[in-house]
Amino acid sequence: MCYSSSVPTTKLFIDGKFVESNTSEWLDIHNPATNEVVGRVPKATQEEMLAAADSCSRAFHSWSETSILSRQQIFLRYQQLIKDNIKELAKIITLEQGKTLADAEGDVFRGLQVVEHACSITSLMLGETLPSITKDMDTYTYRLPIGVCAGIAPFNFPAMIPLWMFPVGMVCGNTYLMKPSERVPGCTMLLAKMLQDAGAPDGTLNIIHGQHAAVNFICDHPAIKAISFVGSNQAGEYIYERGSKNGKRVQSNMGAKNHGVVMPDANKENTLNQLVGAAFGAAGQRCMALSTAIFVGESREWLPELVERSKSLRVNAGDQPGADVGPLISPEAKARVESLIQSGVDEGAKLLLDGRNVKVKGYENGNFVGPTILGNIIGELRTPNMKCYREEIFGPVLVVLEADSLDEAISLINKNPYGNGTAIFTTNGATARKYTHEVDVGQIGVNVPIPVPLPMFSFTGSRGSFRGDTNFYGKQGIQFYTQIKTVTSQWKAEDATVTSPAVTMPTMGR
Question: pTM for the full model?
Fold first, then answer.
């Protein structure tokens, strides 16, 4: 492809250097609010990907032997650099991803919290001991790094999700090969520069770019021992299968259909505000977005007010003052969201709010869809099987179901294949307790619409939303990026060196 030199190119980061790719294949990076090309990203060549993996392999020996205190110091400096540059990182996110500046700062901040937690590595990586398991014999374990690890990140959180990956992997003593989403690479590149400034040695983090070939490379390269993935179900299943077949550990966070259950006794004001924010924030492009509301009993009478509040959100480019909802990532994403809305209408859903014809002055070419609400989803058989309910829409669309009882709501959710997140809105503790115990979802909010756990816990999506057996960050994340070495040692008491001094005259030849 031929390009004018006015469009900046994204570099590769190999062995501590930001290098221009030799590839002949480039992908455009678009500003979702205008669809202007704001940069281009290379599909790294096989040689470049090999160079990045080899750099990780070479750096592993010395990095894994580096004192844990030295690794901790690097990440203490790193979290400060991220904090100091949060606005600059947010600007790049808004340019390439489209979310509002305030939301982009939140994206960076949630990633920063994981880096701050990684600074506790001296406590997190402790082994265990048991002395005197039999006479003169002790057993103890070490948590040790596993080798070269790799991360494959999605477009929707350009800062947070890469920061779930390489800081945790690296602080444990592993080296890291990162592949950011080819749609939003800028933030990861700036994060890499900051990590270098914090003192990370060359080769401890390498970054490649691309699509399928880069993913296959990561799944197949023998030096890579573990893969972290966040993204769609199709890609997640594929990476889990292919990586596992090659003997790698894989943790794969995938799609979702998260339900918010509204009880008639809930705090109405708070609940409606929470629903609107959780359904339409980030234009619905969050795997933890509340994309389905279940109104139980009389709470269904609140629907008209929910629609009114949703109407008042301002759709605009993410860097414009007062913007609530930014654009979707691409024209294809917009077309898909609009077709899923239409499929709901065709299958008999009631369009309570239609955001498809939203016009944003000055941004006529942007990928905008306004807040949309679909009701009347449950058919005669009391089972929601419309396509707009079954599929993850990943846009600012709220699907509304109605249930007669809490038990019916729980049953609906447990029949859904996904288990990423859910929330219940109620002022009754017994109702909340019943819900949290009976609903088969890995992350539950009680009056909290997007219950993403803080980093001292782990991200515990379940069922169809996760593949693997060890989750992201927290204790689980440390387990994922380390292996256990167990030592059983015997030192016989009678072999102990004699310690009493010899005070008699030494004699020879007696």
Answer: 0.93
